[in-house]
């Protein structure tokens, strides 16, 4: 039940409790209780909206920064990660396997703004060995949703047997 | 030229499709929401489409064996064994066809002598009767009822049987009602089938779209495999309607007879479609499960919504149709569907096009987005309130 509710909300967080209850053959109370639990336990962290900013006039630049780190004794990567994710410019931070340690997404209004943030704030943090900045030029797909580039498939017939 | 004297009377005797009219009507109305579509609203899963591109790149542009690609037949045999513990030889008991429609036509033509009777539980899919008539058969319809959730009763079957009865067509899960028949239901039918030495054409194209209980394949019932022609395909489960690929599994003798017609008329199913089907049957389960889950959610929404509007409707366990009664409105099925389309822009199919016992009902397909279903329910509710 829990996974089914999460799957539905992940796709459309505007679904009402009644709708979810009907779709999953549960009572409204069951759904409400479960969602309260999920929120309390911070499993549902936030209800947000997926926006294709490229279609708006808003100036927004995103970059993925590969960050190599010397892990701190006793704290490992967590302490460094914390120093990074506290910046509001940073929209996501993941600990990675492979050639570098932290993958950091930074957002700003211009490339210069992002680049300066990396140069001045990120790379100067203690234990950060190196950074490599990759600007995102175009979003094709995000969170399982294809943004654009796909031509529409043929429409179904309105009536068929 | 007087074509009516030239065109075969057998073809002229076939009435035009009752569905066609709604297709034309719908094209005149703006902002239409359609619950009239008899195919999945999903596009074929990408991995299947991708396999088709690859196959074309490889240069797979030839005829295949008349039976279909051997490796596809082998996978179909594996699937039937896995899902139903049915054993069919890929060599001579499985034929890949251009959809179930072709396969049904082959079977009826291979079986029927002039005037022999085809038993057709209705409401049923619109192609069965014309196919049977074109094959020279006579159609005997058997009514099913809303109070039985449109299951076929053994008693009704028995009463319809005459010395000329030869073939019984079953389609469960059902288009248009969504009805299913569980093992016990089918066993009662099997008894009659045995008694009267019938051949069963079991169209199980919606088998994977079963939401409660398990689908029982007719051939698994005791003594039935030798008198059953099993039809299935890829259109509904894998969202592959336009690829036109289905299959039939049957005893060797009848399969050979069907094969004889198939090799002269169709030669083989298109190779790209067969390659795509191969990918579907090998690696398609995950996507099928996702789609089934989604249909099931929408099924619950539409059944609840229609009942709340006052259009009484049992909760069908299979396919992607619901078949609510519109008797409370006092309108005929055609009137209801026509007015609903003109006044609210919602397409549904009047139940009577699937047979007389569909009168008083409409077929709504929930293979449509959740938003569409909610909007359609809103409009249907407004329409019914106005009456």
TrEMBL record, chain A:
Pfam families xref list: AsnC_trans_reg (PF01037)
Residue stretches making up the Transcription regulator AsnC/Lrp ligand binding domain: 66-139
InterPro entries for this protein: Dimeric_a/b-barrel, HTH-Siroheme_Decarb, Tscrpt_reg_AsnC-like, Tscrpt_reg_AsnC/Lrp_C, WH-like_DNA-bd_sf, WH_DNA-bd_sf
Annotated TM spans: none
Top-level taxon: Bacteria
The name this protein goes by in its record: Transcriptional regulator, AsnC family
Organism: Orenia metallireducens
UniProtKB/TrEMBL annotation, chain B:
Ranges where the Aminotransferase class I/classII large domain occurs: 31-380
Top class in the EC scheme: transferase
Entry annotated with the keyword Repeat: no
Organism phylogeny: Bacteria, Bacillati, Bacillota, Clostridia, Halanaerobiales
Gene3D superfamilies membership: Aspartate Aminotransferase, domain 1, Type I PLP-dependent aspartate aminotransferase-like (Major domain)
Name the UniProt record assigns to this protein: Aminotransferase
Family membership noted in the UniProt record: Belongs to the class-I pyridoxal-phosphate-dependent aminotransferase family.
Stored CDD domains: AAT_like
Cofactor(s) listed in the protein's UniProt record: pyridoxal 5'-phosphate
Keywords: Aminotransferase, Pyridoxal phosphate, Transferase
């Amino acid at each position: 039940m829990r996974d089914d509710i999460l799957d539905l909300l992940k796709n459309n967080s505007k679904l009402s409790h009644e709708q979810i209850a009907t779709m999953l053959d549960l009572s409204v109370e069951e759904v409400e209780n479960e969602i309260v639990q999920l929120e309390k336990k911070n499993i549902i962290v936030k209800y947000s909206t997926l926006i294709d900013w490229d279609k708006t006039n808003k100036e927004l630049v995103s970059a993925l920064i590969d960050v190599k780190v010397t892990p701190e004794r006793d704290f490992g990567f967590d302490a460094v990660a914390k120093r990074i994710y506290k910046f509001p410019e940073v929209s996501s931070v993941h600990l990675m396997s492979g050639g570098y340690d932290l993958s950091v997404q930074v957002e700003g209004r211009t490339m210069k703004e992002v680049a300066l943030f990396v140069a001045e704030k990120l790379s100067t943090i203690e234990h950060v060995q190196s950074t490599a900045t990759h600007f995102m030029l175009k979003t094709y797909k995000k969170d399982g949703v294809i943004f654009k580039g796909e031509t529409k498939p043929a429409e179904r017939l309105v009536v068929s047997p | 030229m007087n074509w009516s004297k030239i065109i075969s009377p057998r073809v002229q005797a076939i009435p035009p499709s009752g569905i066609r009219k709604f297709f034309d009507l719908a094209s005149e109305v703006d902002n239409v929401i359609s619950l009239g579509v008899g195919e999945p609203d999903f596009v074929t899963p990408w991995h299947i489409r991708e396999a088709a591109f690859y196959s074309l790149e490889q240069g797979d542009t030839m005829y295949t064996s008349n039976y279909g690609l051997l490796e596809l037949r082998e996978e179909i045999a594996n699937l039937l064994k896995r899902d139903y513990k049915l054993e069919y030889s890929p060599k001579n008991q499985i034929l890949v066809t251009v959809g179930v429609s072709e396969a049904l036509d082959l079977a009826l033509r291979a079986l029927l002598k002039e005037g022999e009777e085809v038993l057709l539980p209705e409401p049923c899919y619109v192609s069965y009767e014309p196919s049977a008539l074109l094959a020279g058969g006579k159609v005997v319809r058997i009514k099913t009822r809303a109070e039985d959730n449109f299951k076929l009763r053994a008693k009704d079957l028995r009463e319809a049987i005459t010395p000329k009865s030869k073939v019984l067509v079953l389609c469960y899960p059902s288009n248009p009602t969504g009805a299913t028949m569980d093992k016990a239901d089918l066993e009662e039918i099997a008894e009659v089938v045995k008694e009267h030495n019938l051949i069963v054409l079991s169209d199980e194209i919606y088998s994977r779209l079963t939401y409660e209980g398990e689908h029982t394949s007719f051939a698994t019932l005791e003594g039935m495999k030798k008198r059953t022609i099993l039809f299935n395909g890829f259109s509904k489960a894998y969202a592959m309607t336009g690829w036109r690929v289905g299959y039939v599994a049957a005893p060797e003798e009848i399969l050979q007879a069907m094969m004889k017609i198939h090799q002269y008329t169709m030669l083989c199913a298109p190779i790209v479609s067969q390659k795509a089907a191969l990918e579907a049957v090998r690696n398609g389960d995950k996507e099928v499960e996702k789609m089934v889950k989604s249909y099931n959610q929408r099924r619950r929404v539409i059944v609840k919504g229609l009942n709340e509007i006052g259009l009484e409707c049992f909760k069908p366990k299979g396919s992607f149709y619901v078949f609510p009664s519109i008797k409370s409105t006092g309108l005929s099925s055609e009137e209801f569907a026509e007015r609903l389309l003109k006044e609210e822009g919602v397409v549904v199919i009047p139940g009577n096009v699937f047979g007389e016992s569909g009168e008083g009902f409409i077929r709504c397909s929930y293979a449509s987005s959740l938003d569409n279903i909610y909007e359609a329910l809103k409009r249907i509710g407004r329409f019914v309130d106005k009456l």
